[in-house]
């Protein structure tokens, strides 16, 4: 069975138009994608969570169907997410984030704690919270394959997560 995204909705928050997808009822779970992804990455997760919750997946500003923001620091984007939640008349969310979306999520937790029930961070390196050198994969054997892998292979790897065929010439 192929997972499909709910119908896209749009909301204007100051100068930014956010594209978002919503399904289900109950406690609100807000999903933030990573980079270079869109909310499409959550397409198989949304129906599972929506069986018992209200799930909202938002395209971060400048990605997917969302228009660019004026500022791209994490505090500004977290502020946009906070106002988005308020416009939906939601008091608190369970915030689930992946990759760079987690940078925004951690900033949201710091500056908008009153709107947060729980924070789940998946596969993220948060600036300022670094691994020690002994745990840093770049200092360990085998890291050369990560460093020396040709760019087109990374492009192909990343293309599955967002829109189809976003990299010309790579299928």
Automatic annotation (TrEMBL):
Q: Which domain of life is it from?
A: Bacteria
Query: InterPro entries recorded for this chain?
Result: AB_hydrolase_1, AB_hydrolase_fold, AB_hydrolase_sf
| UniProt domain AB hydrolase-1: residue ranges | 28-127
State a GO cellular component annotated for this protein.
membrane
**Annotated Pfam families:** Abhydrolase_1
Looking at the UniProt entry, the stretches that span the membrane are none
Alphabetized Gene3D superfamilies for the sequence: alpha/beta hydrolase (3.40.50.1820)
The alphabetical list of record keywords is: Hydrolase
Question: GO MF annotations for this entry?
Answer: hydrolase activity
What is the protein name for this chain? Alpha/beta hydrolase
List the source organism. Answer: Chitinophaga agri
């Amino acid at each position: 069975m192929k997972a499909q995204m709910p119908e896209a909705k749009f909301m204007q928050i100051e100068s930014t138009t956010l594209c978002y997808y919503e399904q289900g009822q109950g406690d609100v779970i807000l999903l933030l994608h990573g980079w270079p992804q869109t909310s499409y990455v959550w397409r198989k997760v949304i129906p599972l969570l929506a069986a018992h919750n209200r799930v909202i997946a938002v395209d971060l500003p400048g990605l997917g169907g969302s228009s660019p923001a004026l500022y791209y620091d994490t505090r500004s984007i977290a502020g946009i997410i906070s106002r988005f939640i308020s416009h939906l008349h939601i008091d608190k969310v369970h915030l689930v984030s992946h990759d760079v979306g987690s940078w925004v999520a951690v900033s949201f937790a710091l500056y908008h704690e009153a709107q947060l029930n729980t924070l789940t961070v998946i596969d993220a390196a948060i600036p300022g919270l670094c691994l020690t050198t002994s745990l840093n994969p770049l200092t360990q054997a085998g890291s050369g394959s990560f460093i020396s892998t040709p760019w087109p292979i990374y492009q192909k790897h990343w293309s599955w997560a967002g829109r189809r065929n976003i990299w010309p010439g790579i299928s």
